Amino acid sequence: MQKTTSKHAFAGDKKVGQSILTPAENKLKNWLVPKVPDSVETWHLTFTTILWSAGVLCFGKLAAGDLRWLWGVSLMIVLQYLTDLADGEVGRRRDTGLIKWGFYMDHFLDYIFLCCLVMAGYMIAPPGVEFWLVVLLVIVSAFMVNSFLSFAATNEFEIYHYGIGPTETRIGFIAVNTWIVIYGTDQFYWLVPLACIITGLGLIFNTWQIHRKLWQLDMANKASQRSD
Fold first, then answer.
1. Which residue from 42, 140, 168, 206 could staple onto 91, CB 3.0 to 4.6 Å apart?
2. Would you say residue 96 has pLDDT above 90?
3. The pTM is what?
4. Structurally, what CATH architecture does the domain formed by 22-227 represent?
5. Is the separation of the CB atoms in 113 and 52 below 8 Å?
C-alpha cells in the first residue's frame, strides 16, 4: 500500500476570522508597535504575562479585604492586553523567527493569566459561589482546547467565536470588576451561574460546528480517495 504524506507550513501565527473590535485593534497595533524600544524583543513582551499574572493574584488577595483593589486587577488586564497585542507583531516586523515558540509560550501564558483571573474571583467570592467559578474556568478553558484541537486537525487557528475574541473577553472581565466595585459581590449568586449557562451553551454550539466541519472534511477526503 502506497503511503502518502502532505506537509503544510505552520499557520499558528495566522488567525482565521476576526472579532467585532479587530479593525480598531489593528489601528491600535499599528500605532503601538513602532513605539516599542529596539531593546525590547518579542520574547520580553511575551514573558511580561508572568508579571501581570502575579499582579492579578496580589490585587485579588488585597481585594478580598477592599474591593477597590479590583481596579488593580483591571489594570493588569489592560497591561497584559497591550503586551499581548504587541509581542507577535514585533516579532513579525523584526523577523525574529520565533513563530512556533511564540505560538506555544504566548497561548500557554494566556491560559495561566486566565486561571489567575478566576483565582482572583475565587478570593473575593461569597460562600457557595466557589463551585460555579470552577465550572466557569472549565468551560472557558474548553474553548481554548477546542481551538487548539481544531488547529491540529485543520492547520487553521481560530480564536474568534460569534464575533467575540480575547479582546472582548478582557473587556468583559473589566466590566465585571467595575460592577463588583460599585455593587459588591452579592450579585455573584446569580451572575456566575448565568455566565456558566451562557458560555456553556456557546461551547456546545462551538463544539458542534467544529465536529461538523471535521466530519465533512473526512468524508470529502474519503470520497476523493475512492475516486483515485
1. 42
2. no
3. 0.85
4. Up-down Bundle (1.20)
5. yes
